[in-house]
Amino acid sequence: MPNPDLPDLPEACDLLVVGSGAAGMAAAISAHHHGLHPVIIEKSAFFGGSTAISGGAIWVPCNPIAAAADMADSREAARSYIQAEAGNRFNAELVDAFLDKGPEAIGFFHDRTALKMAHRVLSPDYHSDAPGATEGGRALDALDYDGRRLGENLYRMRPPIADFTILGGMPLGRPDIFHFLRMTRSAKSAAHAARTVLRYFRDRLIWGRNTRLVMGAAVSGRLAETVFKLSIPLCTGHELIRLLRDETGRVSGAEVKGPKGVCRVATRRGVVLAAGGYPHDAARRAQSFDHVRRGLPHYSMSPVSGTGGGIAAAEAIGAGFVDTNPNAGFWTPVSLLRNADGSVRPFPHLFLDRAKPGVIAVGHDGRRFVNEASSYHDFVQGLIAKLLAEGQRSAWLVADHRAVRRYGLGAAHAFPARIGRHVASGYLKRDATPEGLARQCGIAAATFRQTIAVFNEAAARGEDPAFGKGSTSYQRYLGDAENWPNPCLRPLEAPFYAVEIYPGDIGTSMGLDITAKGEVKDKQGRAIPGLYACGNDINSIMSGAYPGPGITLGPALTFGYIVGQAAAA
Q1: Which of 18, 56, 163, 300 has its C-alpha lying 20 to 30 A from 348's C-alpha?
Q2: Does 163 fall in a domain?
Q3: Which domain holds residue 368?
Q4: Residues 128-136, mean pLDDT to the nearest whole number
Q5: What pLDDT score does 346 carry?
Q6: How many other β-carbons are positioned within 10 Å of the β-carbon of residue 185?
Q7: Coil, strand, or helix at residue 241?
Q8: Dihedrals φ, ψ of 296, to 5°?
Q9: Contact predicate 415/517, CB 8 Å
Q10: Which residues, listed in sequence order, are joined to residue 559 by a DSSP beta bridge?
């Protein structure tokens, strides 16, 4: 792998941005556009943060890209929807700033940077039956990106998680997943799959890795192209140690630890914290995640560099931290894969398996406990409640053979991928009878058999009286359109498979208190001069709710844009 030259960290700059995910790069680009000379530092050896390994959706109501395609939406509808989602924790100041500046931010990045986006015509909000929800238009995706445009900086970008790829490193975008799942049944899909695989092997031969960047990697790659084009220094391997203030109390710089030791960077306009929240700060997680405090296991999909350093540095000078959200993280169920050294790594069950026909979730008591087709965030809320009530640490996703081979189950990919190694490792349990599977999993066998029988009887009619699986447009969107009469329901048939699942997250939702301009507030609610924050270092503007796909990246880009403007002003 090439070792590109790293930029030196300057002794002074206009604005120091801590973190190189979407929020940090957006803030730096915006600041540069408004006349400042920013510098980005990144604790990890790779830039891109959690954005680079995310699904990449960007949720912004009334955005100009969807509006140009005559997609109906209104600010009032979006505000009502968010307000209902957030309940009595609704932050009108930040939500109004997001709705006012979000469309402007999307227009800026789409028109003036390499971040080219397209809207999803069909992508229902997660609670698609709620007032103010839409069926499409609010969610945007970055266009697939040719990573070769980054040159040797491509090797500094966070690589895809290996378990999310096929063929030893090829990531799949949303259209790719559609075609790869159908390539044995469609000539068009087979051709698409063949072209994608051939390009990947060519890239591996020439570049040593994939160069076609999709989903979150496309967002990161496109923003990074603009960062490098504008000659904004992006210094990886540099960690924020503490913030510095002048005699007036204004944040005037920072102590930074890099390859050459600890140094000081003076800033003329302040510091922006966009370091990705605290998903791997064990102490704060144990304090703020109620289920962890009560003894349940928890696993994060975020990069391990997300240890809350930005938040801690702000708190050290009196910043306020919002800890009142009902959910401290953006939840996802995960299963565990075992590493060679005996440790484990999580795999998220986001949207590929749970909503599909032939799949249910049960506790160790053999009973279903949640609508399997609900959003990953809602699913884990049900999972946590089940585990605490049952006194267990895990539950199970159960599928039949047809579902596993057609859609996959967790890390066990769909046909033609082989699943034997997952059965051999114990990740995937398999048996010809419910009783046999129950014995392997420690599930109450008689109740489990009864659960399957009751579920199957209603599923044959396309109904789920117990939990309403497949009852909303969002749930049906994630199902199988070829399955009739309900895209999410079908009786389970032997043989059966199961994978053990636990609570996990894709990021934290609680964070620093900020103003509508992205200024960090102190504990008395006053703005700290020269200190800004965006991304997952701030308290989510959704107040712990999860209304739709991309509700982290949409606000990240928007408040990054706002912060750049505010610092320049």
Answers
A1: 18
A2: no
A3: 330-505
A4: 98
A5: 98
A6: 10
A7: strand
A8: -85, 150
A9: no
A10: none
